[in-house]
Amino acid sequence: LVIACPCALGLATPTAIMVGVGRGAEQGILIKDAEALEVAHKVNAIVLDKTGTITAGKPEVVDTLWLADSQSHRNVLFGLESASEHPLAEAVVKSLRNTAGPVAIDRLESITGAGVQGVFEGKVYYAGTAKLLQESGIALPEAATAWSDRQRAEARTVIYFATANQVLAVIAIADTIKPSSVAAVKRLKSLGIDVYLFTGDNQQTAAAVARQVGIEHFKGEALPQDKAAFVKELQQKGKIVAMVGDGINDSHALAQADVSIAMGKGSDIAMDVAKMTLISSDLERIPTALRLSRLTVRTIRQNLFWAFIYNLIGIPIAAGLLYPINGFLLNPMIAGAAMALSSVSVVTNSLRLKWAKL
What we know:
Blueprint: H1 6-26, E1 29-31, H2 34-39, E2 45-48, H3 50-54, E3 60-66, H4 71-82, H5 87-96, E4 106-111, E5 115-120, E6 123-128, H6 130-135, H7 142-153, E7 157-163, E8 167-174, H8 179-190, E9 194-198, H9 203-213, E10 217-219, H10 224-236, E11 241-245, H11 251-256, E12 259-263, H12 268-273, E13 276-278, H13 285-318, H14 323-326, H15 332-351
Parallel strand pairs: 2-9, 2-11, 9-10, 11-12, 12-13
Antiparallel strand pairs: 1-13, 3-8, 4-5, 5-6, 6-7, 7-8
């Protein structure tokens, strides 16, 4: 009874998890769910959002093609986009701040993954993707299409401003790719992980961004439900999937993924749903988190192994297994010391995580 030590077995997992979570915090990785730390080492597919994840999340309007410019149109566009919290809408508002003023927009409606629409002086206005205009029956003039293709080839996002029967303006928005994104994708690939880019942007823009960061698998014009469906599809193929995103549009996919990671500068709902949060929004923290998971799980296995071995050997000896052979009986004081040392060894092994190379 003196030598038996269930304490070592009981400490094996929680001590390693506790040290692992603390080490993650030191690296700028907040781990909300200990299960995520245990599962992350199995990840073999990772889905990345574009805006705010691969890019800096600070989009700026770099060019505008006005097909029907007027102060009234600028004011309506300002009013429409002012009602949206999307980063692209904020970029448009910022670009118009010195040349337009907000007007009261009636029947304002935000269309998930597409844009916004509203009514001003009895006329319906749209601001959003080409898909939004097409679904609304608005034809894109050749000049707008050609101009848009040139912008997308440079990895820029294009949004349209139109009435029910006329395209008024085409706006090109650029978002700088984070310097860490290329290195992070390279590290993830070296770990044998398939990397996917999913974005609501046009397919041409998605292709340009994917090419710049070295991602082979990508999809543009993805709605929030498309991201979640793709994550589920990968899971059905036997993949352990991590989803990384920063916006409201990513919340469905984050909830579906085996491991969900939010950017620290993202929306509150994304961080609330995610099991991990990267404080610095640095993508290189992702391979670090996966390595931390592998080291933590390895430590847990080591702890459990030695705790079992200790009890497997110690209890029979204390019960007198060796007495018929050589007359050896274990001193109770030594048995008590061995029991204490078994717990100390488990804790010490877990603490090695604090100095492990990530």
